[in-house]
Amino acid sequence: NYAAHVAEMKAPSEPVVFMKPSTAVRLPGEDVVLKTHGWATVLDGPLSEQRGPLLTARSVGSGVRLWHRRLSPAAWLQVARSTVVADGHGLLVADGASLLELDQATGDLLRRVETDCGEIRWMAVTEGCVLLLGGPRFPSQERRSPENVIPFRSSGLKLMVLDRKTLAKLWREDREEGPDSFDPRSPAAAEGRLFVCTEGGEAEAYRIEDGTLCWRTDTGIERLKPRGFEWDRSTRHPVTGYAVAGLYVISGPETDRCAVLSQKDGKPVWDLPRGQGPVGPIPLALRDLVWVDGNGLDPATGEIQCQVNLDRGGCSRFTAAPQGFLGTE
């Protein structure tokens, strides 16, 4: 938010700093230090405790800023998660423990719903419902220790579904800290079901309509030993659960392999090695195939049907569109 477009700022009211990776700068006139560690940005000082990040809307055609809204300080550590969802003319935003519904055109607040969790860690809209996963507020990244990595990938303690029109709660599933807590990066929804995985490696499926547990499966996934934030890729990879082509694929960069389960009954369909590189394979659905690292696999058997050269390198990302693959290197 401090790497602003200077041309748009007639009278800057906030410090503007352009930074290279792995640097630390003390902002002028503020008792605050802005640090960058590779991809991660950490704001230390009283400013981060008093003012939250800016949510900005820009025109797709010109890039002109249409509106901006400052969120609460609790949102600083939510920006790496799935916490902003566009739906119709509304924009749903997780701001700490609050669910905000904004007008997409103006940014005006339409509705606000408070939850009883420390923060909302994941959100989606489907089947006329809002799906939420909340947990305790994430600890500060000031101590960059392996102990702080595990709360990022676990501590999903409140899984809930709200009616999209009224935002009234339809059902909720509560958990305690430990192996039974949900991984906030793992939820995915498809065909009227919500799929999620626990820290202990159990995959579960719930009927979105009423919260009925459809199946529970022990994936047998082993997690790699957590490391500090600078080197633990799981803290920079906000999605590990994918619902594609009738499958629920659990693919985390800190897991020893990927679990490929049937959405219908949770039974393993075929085995998928985690692959090489820091981010592991990210499954994409395109042309009736599941694509992993350039291999087009038959969803029913896992057999390779087609291959293309996708050099994803250390930090590249790929996604699928009707026209083909889109990627960055």
Parts with pLDDT < 50 across at least 5 consecutive residues: 1-44
Structural class: mainly beta
- The total count of strands amounts to 27
Topology as a string of helices (H) and strands (E): EEEHEEEEEEEEHEEEEEEEEEEEEEEEE
In angstroms, what separates the terminal alpha carbons? 24 Å
Helix content: under 10%
Strand order of the largest sheet: 6-7-8-9
Q: Profile the largest sheet.
A: 4 strands, antiparallel
Anisotropy-based shape = globular
Strand percentage lies at 35-45%
Rounded Rg: 20 Å
Average pLDDT, all residues: 77
Summed up, the helix count is 2
Could you give a quick summary of the protein structure above?
The protein has 329 residues and is mainly β.
Structure write-up:
With 329 residues, this protein is mainly beta. It contains two helices and 27 strands. The strands form eight sheets. The protein has a four-stranded antiparallel sheet with strand order 6-7-8-9, with no helix packed on it. A four-stranded antiparallel sheet has the order 10-11-12-13, with no helix packed on it. It has a four-stranded antiparallel sheet with strand order 14-15-16-17, with no helix packed on it. The N terminus is likely disordered.
